[in-house]
Amino acid sequence: MDVPRSNTPTLRFAEVARRLGAAAHAHGLAVPAFRSPPRTPGVARTLRRYPGGTVISVQLRGRPFPSVVADMVDGVLAANRVAPTDADALRAALHASVDDLARLRTEESAASAAPEAVVGEPAVRAA
Fold it and tell me: Higher confidence at residue 101 or residue 97?
């Protein structure tokens, strides 16, 4: 599957939501809706239950993308009230469905944070 090359967290969020929905459905789980940001200020994730389904809201801004993905995965498990005995296996399967997106974002963040070395000049470190 093609990995989106956009640095836009919103597009990555949408792709993760789509993949998690497909993986949840494949494992017989109800597929929740995802949105961002949560209505409650200052929280990383909320879960709201409605008669027609569950909505998981996740804060994107100011957070590492792997943390966002972990909240989305745990939200799927919570929305489905997965028993603790089954949670680890399902969590691993859900993470596997989006692992390339979370890893790609982490690698891009690390690359953008690391200064580029200039060939022929010594590296300078801040004291």
Answer: 97
Residue 33 lies in a domain: yes
Give 61-67 contacts, CB < 8 A, sequence gap 24+: 61/9, 61/37, 64/106, 64/109, 65/9, 65/12, 65/101, 65/102, 65/105, 65/106, 65/109, 66/102, 66/105, 66/106
Q: Does residue 20 lie within any of the structural domains?
A: yes
Residues 57-100: tens digit of each pLDDT: 999 999 999 999 999 999 999 999 999 999 999 999 999 999 88
Give the whole-angstrom CA distance, residue 27 versus residue 13.
21
Q: How many domains does the chain have?
A: 1
Kindly state whether residue 1 falls inside one of the protein's structural domains.
no
**Quick check: is 30 in a domain?**
yes
pTM over 0.70: yes
Question: Domain range holding 18?
Answer: 9-104
The dihedrals phi and psi of 114, each to the nearest 5 degrees, come to -80, 130
Average confidence (pLDDT) over 90-115? 69
pLDDT average, residue stretch 102-107: 56
